[in-house]
Structures
1.
Amino acid sequence: MFNALVLTQEEKLTHANVRQISEAELPEGDVLVEVACSSLNYKDGLAVTGVGRIIRNFPMVPGIDFAGTVIESSDERYKAGDRVILTGWGVGENHWGGLAEKARVKADWLVPMPDDCDAAKAMQVGTAGLTAMLCVQALQQAGIKPSDGDVLVTGASGGVGSVAVTLLAQLGYRVVASSGRVEQNGPLLSKLGASEVIERSELEVDARPLEKQRWAGVVDTVGNKVLATALAQMQYGGAAAICGLAGGFALPTTVMPFILRGVNLLGVDSVSCPFEKRQAAWQDVLKLLPASYYQDACEAITLEQVPEFAQRIIKGQVTGRVLVQL
Ligand code: NDP
């Protein structure tokens, strides 16, 4: 028997409790993993609180990512003792996930842990950090260079945002961080590498179709009016990598930035991202993130603390990355 956070539903309300489960209860899969660490992402917040209604089948073990060691495998790519990372693929949404001491998953969903990494480091990066790297790579592939101008990161205090700020600064971009918590998190964002920190309210307005040109690139985790304003402020030929909806899934924009300024909108998904691209992004993010990121922008919690932190993340009250130690 081992510990797991188990979600149940009663009269449309989601309940989250730590309880003992057995290996026999785990879903089918090729690889059984001893989970060392998981992490808390926005989607985990939606799942654990039930606010997002993203879980269809109960009981469910949430946790959209984990890192650990293979106990047994029926797939030739993995053997007992191998260290692995999992993010995405609907794990923690429709297949029991990482907020448990053991998980059984498909071999296709795993990535071998890079040599210079450990489980804690992997989950301090986690789904959010991997997604931030994919956003930065999308901007690079769209040809956005540090010399082109400022890059805006929205939802900058969050997991994806704080990693994106750090990665872009490490790569030499001039980063402008947008946050709803400038007073609280401005000093941290500057320390991570932001050259300027602006109030979210500056962007959360009804923008005109085209505004004064400000951004060569954008990493957006927020959506809605914030993204619409950022698009109206894009420089000619700029690109926006968008991955999130912390401010809502709407996008009240016009065609103007795209047809008059040649702006590119780059959708970023880490959930079903192909293996090679995923593996390359893991290598890059681990190489680029400085030790100071882990020290300054990460905190660690226990399984029992997850429900409390899940409430906090959906209220936009979590800063940086939250590691869950199993
Ligand atoms: P976090 O909660 O850690 O970060 C989100 C940040 O957005 C907050 O810290 C806050 O930053 C800001 N924010 C929160 N609420 C609001 C609001 N109502 N209006 C505007 N801004 C708000 O979440 P993650 O970093 O884990 O995820 C960020 C987003 O990216 C989520 O929507 C998530 O679902 C999405 N995502 C998508 C992935 C993909 O594959 N496409 C993968 C991973 C995440 P501040 O206080 O600084 O403004």
2.
Amino acid sequence: MSNWNGKTIIITGASSGIGEATAERFVKEGANVVLAARREDRLKELQDKLSGETGKAVYKKTDVTSEKEMKELAEFAINEFGQIDVLFNNAGLMPLSFMKNTKVDEWDKMVDVNIKGVLYGVAAVLPHMIERNEGHILTTSSVAGHEVMPTGAVYCGTKFAARIIMEGMGKELAESNIRTTSISPGVVQTELTDTITDEDAMSFLKDGVGLGSMTPLASEDIAEGVFYAVNQPAHVDVNEIIIRPTNQG
Ligand code: NDP
């Protein structure tokens, strides 16, 4: 029997990309996986696809920018499976743009999803984990949470914030059995760039930083990193993982 039988992981941003691949990875290990995102059709499709696997996947439509919905997501997981072992705060948006183009609504959205969404996730599960003196909270930061590039002033800012929130929380929880991890991917082939509306940014990314010729990672490559971090023995706390394509500078 796998270590994961009977354990529960909540994954936000599970309707596509890295979240979807991570859900698949954990269900195959026997875990109970709670899929969360806004696109209910995609969540239902994934739940159906995973129904024959060793573990169990269930979904709850959730907007991470709502503190209430995040609380309800945690309650749902506890009602379904009795406990929350892992929260993977993975939902994110990346509408890159130049500051001069003042895409204020997109700045707002990135702050709301990439920072406040993470905080609401923490608020929803941390009291439960403290009560059990056990648990693991992971957040998807990025290589962009380690270095800033033109068009990424706000996005990178949110990913730095997400990473630092994990690090600070980890320090506060050092005396407990609760672990924290930042996962920092490089370029991964997903739908993430669909949210870019700034044409200057699009041409900069294609011509200026050579993304056009890079071989991106697959979401499964990142899911493997998440699994590695979570699957360590209880005394091992993997705080940070950076995974980038070999040919990404
Ligand atoms: P996707 O666009 O495939 O996934 C983003 C996910 O976030 C979707 O499932 C989307 O679901 C969800 N999401 C967005 N807004 C909300 C919201 N308000 N509430 C709930 N869910 C939301 O891209 P990725 O898989 O690439 O992105 C996953 C994470 O990885 C993000 O945090 C991203 O910043 C990070 N990342 C990605 C990299 C890459 O190159 N792809 C590199 C580094 C980091 P829905 O729309 O259904 O709500």
